[in-house]
Amino acid sequence: MVKLFRCEICGDPYIGESAPDNCPFCGAHKPHIKESGEAKAEFDLELNGKDKVNAEKALGVEVSNATFYACASEKSEDEYGRLLFKALKKVEAEHASIWKKILKLESVPEGSETCAQTNSENLAESHARETRAIEFYKKAAEESQNPRIKEIFQALVEIEKDHLVFSRNV
Predict the structure, then answer these.
(1) Domain at 102, CATH number
(2) In a domain, 43, yes or no
(3) Three-class SS of residue 13?
(4) CA-closest candidate to residue 160, choices 125, 124, 135, 123
(5) What pTM did the predictor assign?
(6) What is the pLDDT of residue 167?
(7) Which residues constitute the domain of residue 20?
(8) pLDDT tens profile 15-67
(9) Do 67 and 19 fall within a single domain?
């Protein structure tokens, strides 16, 4: 029987017979995907000063990464690279939309990142970007006193670690 599920990290709905292993929108792992009536996806949060600074920085990281991946997809040398970078762009853009909601912004700012001409150089840059994001999100999760902000940062650590698989051997 088909059911309606919702990701507790990005808030997006998913229709299927069972919860997917990862959110098809933000990449959150299965424990964050619940039947819609049970899911709690709150974005109207009161942020203390540190959480606001970290949320603004996270938005910048995600916008930068989404823009970088869009560029890498356009310049890719092959279909696999185009698809990989396009998928990563969509996930990073979804992460930016999470922070947009939390920061109560009307839109996600535009990025202006460039990329290299080869997949190998872009995969190396991808690895560096994902590694920096993971370290920042770990630190931000530790610093947060807000359980929801902490949950989002911890989920993003898991998701960004998944992305390292594609650039590990570059």
Answers:
(1) 1.20.1260.10
(2) no
(3) strand
(4) 135
(5) 0.95
(6) 86
(7) 3-35
(8) 999 999 999 999 999 999 999 999 999 999 999 999 999 999 999 999 999 99
(9) no
